[in-house]
Fold:
Amino acid sequence: MVNTTQENIAQKELLELARKKVKKRKNFYIHLFVFTIAISLWLLKRYTSLPLNFFPIRYINWFVMSIWTVVITFQAIELLISEVIFGKKWEDKQVKNILENKTEKQTWE
Structure:
C-alpha cells in the first residue's frame, strides 16, 4: 500500500513537471511565431514603400525589435538550458530526492 501511494505521488509530480515543460515550450513557440511575423512586417515597413501605418505596426521600431529580440533570445537560452543541461536524468534525480525527503521520518534523539 505504501509503495503504491509513493508511486502515485511520484507519478503525479512527474506528470506536473511534464505539463510545465510542455507549457513552457508551447509558450516559446507561440512567442517565436508572433516575433517572426512582427519582424517580417517591420522589415517590409522599413525597406519597402508599402503603406504599413495601421495601429500595431505603426509602433514597431528599432527599439521595440531590439528589446523583443533580447527577450526571445533569453527565453530560448532558458529553454535550452532547462532541456539540455538539466535533462531527464537530472530531473528524475531531483524528484527522487524530493520524494525521499517527504517520506523520510524525522527521529528525535
In short: The mean pLDDT is 80.
